[in-house]
Specification:
The structure is a single chain. Strand 17 and strand 18 form a beta hairpin. Helix 24 packs across helix 25. It is globular, with a radius of gyration of 28 Å. A 6-stranded parallel beta sheet has the order 11-13-16-19-12-20. A 5-stranded antiparallel beta sheet has the order 2-1-5-4-3, with helices on both faces. The protein is α/β, with parallel strands linked by helices and 710 residues long.
């Protein structure tokens, strides 16, 4: 059982750096004394000689093979963590549940120093062997632990500072310990945070591996934290029983692992599996809002992640895997559910095929016709469009309508995976790729997509060095995992997507021209929501997904506001606005203006019409032209997409020739305008806008209240 979360042990009044938090707290001294008394009771002395008797090589091999799965999940995370602490006189250690070190990586000079105290693979660092130390004490306490300098029981280890966190499986059983050890003079208070996050990454990967064929609910009290390491994840069986959970879920629910497994989805949240299924089978579903009996509310997304397996849902009898679950067209059988692995997707979207996306807009209709002509022709598809326009929805629809619909749909967001991990993520790794690996490490995303569709989202953000490897895979249809000499043949359909201007990137040397021409068999551009004529249909479908049983109407005044608004966040922003309105309407038959959030009303009313509003309906806003939003504008202005905005926050000015008269504005209004202008200049890319403005992404979300970027 997972022990209750305990506060991170703070420093004591002994010889420690001033950087250590709460250095004068007596509670820390008492805690260390308790640990040392425990070691004395084990018969150890502080002058204990260092034991250099590691396991025999054959025994270490057995220990590693026994913990091969732990190593497989931990090795890439350790490599990524090492990049965060490189050149800090530190090392990263993975130990099993008995305290035996299985694997370590670190700075060469420090590894040599660590060898002098036998901190190396094959040596046991449990408390009964090494006294008080972060690895052994974490195993005993079952909680994250810092042991610094003279806090180590054995004097020989006092030059070390160690931060360790336990690793648990979804049922609360301890698997091992992840530790960062360094020179005690290099202590940094953020090290423990990195270790704990890394341990959670390993745990979440283990959970996904264990329950790839089960319903997973991803939740948090704040919607923007869904899809991050802070989200809680619980696994639910077809009968509604809770099968497992990650530590964030246990912390948020205030339950132990064993106690949580006594619940069902109904007794926990008051909802059935079939009700969850109904909610997320609609197009563009927003997170559900579920409550505990105490009244505490959570935002919840549902997913099916992992390899293609079947899961029978009690009320529907349909087979499903990963995020996208079923096709509701009568022509398809329930068993022809869309399968795939989108571990980095936060949507869990369900829809039919291309016909469902055709909602009456001429541009969308023409786009769908083009795509239908190349279905099953082995022609790559490249989807362009601003953030939030639905590029992944289109990719899934293409897969759904293709001959590959029964095979995996694997989505890889090239912008969300750390550069240090994306190569292993795409191509996988085998024997020898990481120190200590004995068996096949991990199957890459490309191999997972074999027989199905590989969706490369934000392909423009792929590191240049990896573009050559990807090009070779697309040309030869063979993948060579890291550390392997064997190639694996793959049969995949490739769909790329980006909001970037790839031709400009090619000219700048940041994107390979040969890869571009390999990806752009057919290039389609999804129009921005402000340029579409089906806003009322899209809004209606969003409401149907949010309130399938009592769908409210949208009043004429609200729809008029919607049709004159620029929607810089596109369909994603519209979905967030409507979701808030549904909650505010609280079962009323019609959404009125007073149900909309104040910030949206302010934007929509105070002279922010979209630029295309003044043009004839048959003459949509041409590419490269954007609205110039501002308070008190008598009309609309247009500006180039490469509008320059000063990083320090200086006010952006309209381009020459743009005759717009601005009324006096408050400082807050000017701030909002600057953020919106910068987002328009960055084609809706919030990461790019945050860099230009010198503020965080969270600040942009908070100011504009668009919701989380996926």
């Amino acid at each position: 059982m997972v022990a209750p979360h305990r506060p991170l042990a703070t420093a004591r009044t002994w010889t420690v750096p001033a950087a250590l938090p709460c250095a004068t707290q007596p509670a820390r001294t008492e805690l260390i004394e308790q640990w040392h008394q425990r070691c004395s009771a084990l018969g150890l002395t502080r002058a204990e000689r260092v034991d250099f008797d590691p396991l025999l090589r054959s025994d270490l091999t057995v220990a590693r093979e026994r913990n091969q799965r732990l190593f497989t999940h931990a090795a890439p995370v350790m490599e990524m963590l090492f990049e965060q602490i490189v050149d800090t006189e530190s090392m990263i250690v993975l130990a099993d549940v008995a305290g035996t070190i299985l694997h370590s990586v670190g700075d060469d000079r420090f590894l040599q120093r660590a060898d002098k105290v036998a901190l190396a693979p094959g040596v046991n660092w449990a408390e009964h062997s090494r006294g008080t130390n972060a690895i052994g004490t974490t195993l005993f306490e079952e909680a994250p632990t810092v042991v610094h300098g003279d806090e180590h029981f054995i004097h020989a280890n006092s030059f070390l500072t160690c931060s360790a966190a336990p690793i648990f499986d979804p049922r609360g059983n301890m698997l091992g310990v992840l530790d960062v050890t360094g020179d005690q003079r290099s202590y940094h208070q953020h090290t423990m945070g990195l270790v704990r996050m890394s341990a959670r990454m390993i745990e979440n990967q283990w959970l996904s591996d264990d329950y790839g064929n089960r319903l997973r609910l991803h939740f948090h009290t704040r919607a923007e934290f869904i899809g991050t390491l802070l989200e809680g994840i619980i696994v639910v069986g077809a009968d509604g029983k809770v099968l497992g959970a990650n530590r964030s879920a246990l912390d948020q629910l205030g339950l132990s692992s064993a106690a949580l497994r006594m619940y069902s989805l109904t007794s926990l949240f008051g909802i059935t599996v079939s009700a969850v299924f109904d909610h997320f089978r609609a197009p563009l579903p927003m997170p559900m809002t579920l409550s505990l009996s105490s009244g505490r509310q959570f935002h919840v997304n549902a997913r099916f992640n992992g390899p293609q397996r079947s899961m029978v849902l009690d009320a529907h009898g349909s087979e499903a895997a990963t995020d996208v679950i079923v096709n509701d067209r009568p022509a398809r059988k329930p068993s022809e559910a869309l399968a795939g692995d989108t571990a980095h997707s936060a949507q869990g979207t369900l829809f039919s095929g291309l016909h469902y996306l055709n909602t009456g807009d001429p541009q969308i209709g023409a786009l769908v016709q083009k795509v239908q002509r190349v279905l099953n022709r082995d022609i790559p598809l490249l989807i362009l469009g601003e953030t939030g326009t639905g590029k992944e929805l289109l990719a899934r629809a293409v897969h759904q309508d293709s001959n590959r619909a029964k095979q995996p749909f694997v989505a890889v967001n090239c912008a969300s995976i750390p550069e240090s991990l994306i190569e292993a993520e795409l191509f996988g790794y085998e024997d020898g790729a990481f120190t200590g690996a004995r068996r096949k490490g991990a199957v890459g995303r490309i191999v997972q997509a074999n027989g199905g569709t590989l969706f490369l989202d934000e392909i423009g953000d792929m590191p240049l060095a990896l573009q050559a490897r990807l090009l070779r895979v697309l040309q030869e249809r063979n993948v060579t995992p890291l550390g392997s000499l064997k190639s694996i043949p793959v049969d995949i359909a490739v769909i790329g997507a980006t909001h970037r201007k790839l031709r400009e990137m090619i000219e700048a040397g940041s994107f390979r021209e040969d890869l571009y021409y390999r990806l752009n068999g057919l290039v389609v551009k999804l129009p921005a929501l402000r340029d579409r004529r089906d806003l009322d249909v899209v809004a209606r479908r969003i409401l149907l997904s949010e309130c399938p049983h009592a769908t409210p109407e949208i009043s004429a005044s609200v729809m008029a506001l919607f049709k004159t608004y620029a929607w810089p966040g596109n369909v994603r922003q519209l979905a967030n606005v409507l979701r808030t309105a549904v909650v505010m309407a609280a079962g009323e038959a019609q959404i009125e203006e007073h149900h909309l959030s104040d910030d949206f009303l302010e934007d929509a009313r105070d002279g922010r019409p979209m630029a295309v509003a003044a043009a004839p309906a048959s003459d949509p806003l041409p590419p490269g032209r954007v609205e110039w939003p501002g308070d008190g504008l008598a009309g609309a202005c247009s500006a180039p997409h490469d509008l320059a905005v000063d990083r320090a926050g200086a006010s952006a000015t309209p381009p020459a020739g743009a005759e717009c008269t601005a009324a006096p504005r408050t400082l807050g209004e000017a701030e909002i305008d600057l953020i919106r202008n910068t987002l328009s200049a960055a084609n809706g890319n919030i990461s790019e806008a945050s860099k230009r403005l010198g503020i965080s992404r969270n600040t942009i979300y908070r100011k504009l209240k668009w919701g989380k970027e996926s």
